[in-house]
């Protein structure tokens, strides 16, 4: 155990943040011996490195070693682990998301021997390489993958070989955007394991958290999504016989506490904070994991071969829920404000045509501008939730403008009728109908009685009534729409 701890600290510790500051990288040249730190010294007969009193050296590939032949007669067991360094942002328009991760695997190859009095050793592959499994991320995709060998293979006493790689690429994710921005997405990261191996997810000694197969740097998670949970799956299959596909490992990790890493005030990229438990937890977040019982896949695993007719796959699945904060501040609140502003015209006098027309046109143009800022979307043959919202808001501001158009049209129509009809003395006509003598009330015959148009009074009354009804009907209808919209899409989220 002491040797394993030293290996983890000295060899792989500098790749990722650790609990304590790490010693500087050291080199072995000639026969020099110098102090690198309190725990690491270099004594270079045959390139030995001493870490915490544990000897480590470079070994060469044995003579006659065939790196094209897998160790053992059957598919060797290969345990793998991932530390996700970067994830996101998720691009809806391209349906891609950037991801970068360390991929560590170990297997047993008894053909490689560690010298006596040594716990582990690097393999010098300058003269020849050792057998390795062939991981291939995102198979059947034309994405460009950047692959880096972080360290040469490492052999531990007993023949256990460790391999560490780094992958960076844009992974595809087919998103269903019916409920956007109230959607939940499921994205996966498949890794095809060629070379005739039985690949499984397993915890590794490389990371400070050594009980989870999948670790993620949550502070480097750049996305409008939050991770609800992830699933890790191992399965075997063949393109020649898809019906034989069999899942032999399946696990689940709840990421419910990952949001704390986004709200913490600590900057975990600074050296002063890397030894704090909160930063360690966020840099190597694994969630709460459990495994499921799976069927017996031995009949399929026996067919796994080196030619790739049958192979195994590792798969990482993410369930993502979109955060609404951005869209509430940039889409919902502005559009609701514009719709509410369009109702101000109902309180403006109908005779003020420039004021009401200017307000109506301004709100319509503002809604058109807001619709264009929702965000780029792929060419879809269906309507998203945000499209329903924006179209309805446009409809309300257009209806508010059309309401004044109807009011103004009614007023103009009645005005033309009045110009073609004789004026009626409303007061005299009323008194005649009740049988009163008009002369008794005409005290000043020099001043003609005031005359009004019955049609004009009726038109003004109707127009004002329409405005009064609109003051209630428009807000009530919009409130019903808002309640129905959020009730439907929030309940419809998968």
UniProtKB/TrEMBL annotation:
Domain of life: Eukaryota
Location relative to the cell: Cell membrane; Membrane
GO CC terms in record: chloride channel complex; plasma membrane; postsynapse
GO biological process: chloride transmembrane transport
Residue intervals of the Neurotransmitter-gated ion-channel ligand-binding domain: 63-189
Residues making up the signal peptide according to the UniProt record: 1-21
Membrane topology category: Multi-pass membrane protein
PROSITE patterns: NEUROTR_ION_CHANNEL
Name of the protein described by the UniProt record: Gamma-aminobutyric acid receptor subunit gamma-3-like
Source organism of this protein record: Branchiostoma floridae
